[in-house]
Amino acid sequence: MDDILAGLGALAPTVLVGLVFWLVMFVILRADKHERRAFSKIEAEERAKLAAAQDSPSGTRSPRS
Question: What is this structure's pTM?
């Protein structure tokens, strides 16, 4: 029984470091996914505004001209 506990005690730090690494990577990748989704939404809105400004009959030019 002492051998089993010693073996588990030797593996515990490695397992804990692995779990912490997995948690950190999970949080980073999840944040990146949400940031990309938000950026895509903002980019689509800006493209729609630009297209609407170019299609407007008022003849105004976009600020990028």
Answer: 0.64
Residue 60 backbone dihedrals phi, psi, to 5 degrees: -75, 145
**13 Ramachandran zone, left/alpha/beta (phi>0; psi -120 to 50):** alpha
Q: Tell me phi and psi for residue 62, to 5 degrees.
A: -70, 155
CA quadruple 3, 8, 11, 13: dihedral, nearest 10: -120
CA dist., res. 44 & res. 19, Å (int): 37
Q: Residues 34-57: pLDDT tens digits?
A: 999 999 999 999 999 999 999 877
pLDDT at residue 56, rounded to an integer: 78
The phi-psi region of residue 19 (left if phi > 0; otherwise alpha if psi is between -120 and 50; otherwise beta) is: alpha
